[in-house]
Design a protein that fits this description.
The complex is a heterodimer of chains A (about 350) and B (about 260).
Chain A lengths: L1 E8 L5 H7 L6 H8 L5 E8 L3 E8 L2 H15 L8 E4 L2 H10 L11 H15 L5 H20 L9 H13 L6 E5 L3 H12 L4 E6 L2 H11 L2 E4 L12 E4 L10 H9 L6 E5 L16 E5 H39 L6
Parallel strand pairs in A: 5-6, 5-8, 6-7, 8-9, 9-10
Antiparallel strand pairs in A: 1-3, 1-4, 2-3
Chain B lengths: L3 H22 L6 H26 L7 H23 L4 H18 L14 H36 L4 H5 L3 H29 L5 H22 L5 H26 L3
Helix pairs in contact in B: 1-2, 1-4, 2-3, 3-4, 3-5, 5-7, 5-9, 7-8, 7-9, 8-9
Classes of the chains: A alpha/beta (about 350), B mainly alpha (about 260).
């Protein structure tokens, strides 16, 4: 028995090609039914995400099945089937283990792909399209992914400015529920960051913008309060996190302005996220006790660090995966199904 | 044979410390069950050692500097086991085991008095006062550890460089809260212990009295100032480290002045 894999992903094809291959959830049963008619194919699982469309199949006649699969995909995707990469076991097994572990993802170590693989496998099982070998393969892949994630640092750190800001907020305040956020300047990045914070339990968001209508609009969208830009300091008392991204050419938040506001805070920490260029917050603000100031450069540096840590872990992950491929291939050798 | 439980306890804390170093060097920051087992094992062996020593001395085993150091180590581990898990202060064990290991190694290797001076008159108030004082110092030690963790986390956050230590230490707000609560616990215990000391009516050496009063007064002042928000968490953390170092330094003198003549 062989495990075959045919597909395209973000490494091999641009999005305009990938979208032609994509298999929507409602099409899945039909497509699985169609490819199961390919002569020699015993079972199949289809993985279709925004970054990859892959067909995993079990067969004792790999060449015949691969030709059949290409023929079907050419029909479906206007003769772009030649763009497919194809792997036969053990390379196909290794490929699936790498995909499940997040090593083949656009952001190395991301964990969403594992959930997507589980969904794809569950859908194929529901359609009765899996076989003993595919069941064993996918169960093994899920185990490998779990082990790689728990025993290496492949998922370490955050990989976007928004998620780094949220992680830092949690390292300052612990639980974010009940915390208050103020946005100074309703830019796109500050909005995304505020939304990430709200998703982690932040209670109140106050939006101050030069254009009050824009502040009111954003406040309405995320369930916050809008205040006039010139009055931001009047509602500052209970704010825990300040996100700045105005287009002002000079600092809006200065040490001189902030120091008196901090006196009434009873030693509560203040986390300032300055996403503006030029910066909205005077550098001297960072010298204040209990104030933690991060500008866009420092947030991006942490993102880069996380990616470097993950990149450095790839070799360890590959070694683990190689061991698992070996053990799976040994299992396959002892469980041979013959061509009928 | 009598020394075996103490040697075993020291070995447990050495294991805990070695395991911590290995885990941290490997880039993992979850100490997990192995560290907890080593700490708990060390605690049980320390308890056994104190029980043996208590039987020999016929009183609470705090009659020599050696006894005092072992008893204080026991109190530090007890409070760390009680406080660490509920406050989810991961890594507190990583900071506690080297401190306890150092105290135990010092007690066993340094040329300090081991023979217990046996009291002619046994007064339960005095024993209660002395043992509770040492448990209070254990709480202050843990407050110092939480304070040290606070300062490390503050530095990590101020450096703005990220890094694994930043993302694996507990949130700085939680560390500040733990630091203050441990100070309150230590202060409460010390106050009760001093009250018991007064009730015993024992004669007190003037130097010992004023040193103890100074320690009590400093911790009390820190807590009052913290309560009225005049002492920010960072300074409270720094002071709790500094004052505990002072307590450790004065401990041999206080023990010497407290020893039954």
């Amino acid at each position: 028995m062989n495990i075959l894999c045919a597909g395209i992903n973000h490494h091999s094809a641009a999005v305009d090609i990938r979208e032609k291959f994509a298999v929507a959830t409602h099409e899945l049963e039909g497509v699985l039914g169609r490819i199961r008619t390919i002569d020699g194919l015993a079972g199949a699982v289809i993985v279709s995400t925004c970054n990859r469309v892959e067909f995993y199949a079990a067969s004792v006649c790999p060449i015949r099945v691969m030709d059949g699969l290409r023929e079907y995909l050419n029909e479906r995707t206007e003769n772009t089937g030649s763009l497919l990469y194809t792997h036969v076991s053990p390379r196909s097994v290794r490929h699936l283990f790498r995909v499940a572990s997040g090593l083949d993802s656009m952001v190395i170590g991301e964990t969403e792909i594992l959930g997507q693989l589980k969904q794809a496998y569950a859908a194929a099982t529901e359609c009765g399209a899996t076989t003993r070998h595919l069941n064993k393969l996918f169960q093994h892949a899920f185990r490998v992914a779990k082990q790689v994630r728990s025993e290496t640092r492949i998922t370490r750190g955050s990989t976007s400015v928004g998620s780094v800001a949220v992680d830092l907020a949690e390292k300052i305040f612990g639980d974010l529920s009940g915390r208050k956020v103020m946005i100074l300047g309703a830019g796109e990045t500050s909005e995304r960051t505020a939304r990430s914070l709200v998703s982690r339990g932040v209670r109140t968001v106050i939006v101050a913008n030069r254009t009050f209508e824009r502040a009111a609009q954003l406040a309405g969208e995320i369930g916050g309060l809008a205040v006039h830009f010139d009055h931001w300091h009047k509602t500052f008392d209970e704010v825990d996190i300040l996100i700045c991204s105005t287009a002002a050419p000079h600092p809006v938040v200065t040490r001189e302005k902030l120091e008196p506001l901090l006196r009434s805070r009873d030693g509560r920490p203040l986390f300032i996220i300055d996403l503006a260029v030029p910066r909205d917050v005077e550098a001297a603000v960072d010298d204040l006790e209990n104030v933690y100031l991060y500008d866009i450069d420092s947030l991006e540096q942490i993102v880069r660090q996380s990616l470097e840590v993950r990149q450095a872990e790839v070799a360890r992950c590959e070694q683990m995966i190689d061991r698992h491929v070996g053990s799976f291939v040994s299992w396959m050798r002892t469980h041979i199904d013959h061509c009928t | 044979m009598d020394a075996l439980p103490l040697v075993g306890a020291t070995f447990c804390f050495l294991l805990s410390f070695g395991y911590t170093v290995l885990v941290l060097a490997g880039g993992r920051f979850r100490l997990g069950a192995a560290n907890m087992v080593a700490m708990a094992g060390g605690f049980l062996l320390l308890s056994l050692s104190l029980w043996q020593r208590g039987r020999v001395e016929g009183s609470c085993p705090i009659n020599s500097l050696f006894d005092v150091l072992v008893f204080m180590s026991w109190a530090i581990v007890l409070i760390s086991l009680l406080v660490g898990p509920p406050y989810r202060l991961s890594l507190m064990g990583a900071f506690t085991s080297p401190l306890v290991l150092s105290i135990l190694l010092f007690a066993q290797l340094a040329p300090i008095g081991r023979s217990a001076a046996v009291r002619v008159v046994r007064d339960p108030y005095i024993e209660f006062h002395a043992s509770l004082s040492l448990i209070a110092y254990g709480a202050f030690a843990l407050a110092g550890i939480a304070g040290l963790m606070y300062l490390v986390q503050d530095r990590q956050l101020k450096r703005r460089k990220g890094g694994v230590l930043l993302f694996n230490l507990p949130p700085i707000t939680d560390l500040g809260i733990a630091n203050a609560r441990l100070l309150w616990l230590g202060f409460g215990l010390l106050t009760v212990s001093f009250a018991a000391g007064f009730l015993s009516g024992m004669p007190v050496n003037t130097l010992k009295f004023w040193t103890s009063a100074a320690i009590w007064g400093i911790y009390g002042a820190m807590l009052v100032l913290r309560k009225v928000h005049s002492l920010p968490p960072r300074r409270t953390a720094a002071l709790s480290v500094g004052v505990f170092v002072f307590v450790l330094c004065t401990l041999p003198a206080i023990q010497h002045l407290s020893a039954p003549q």
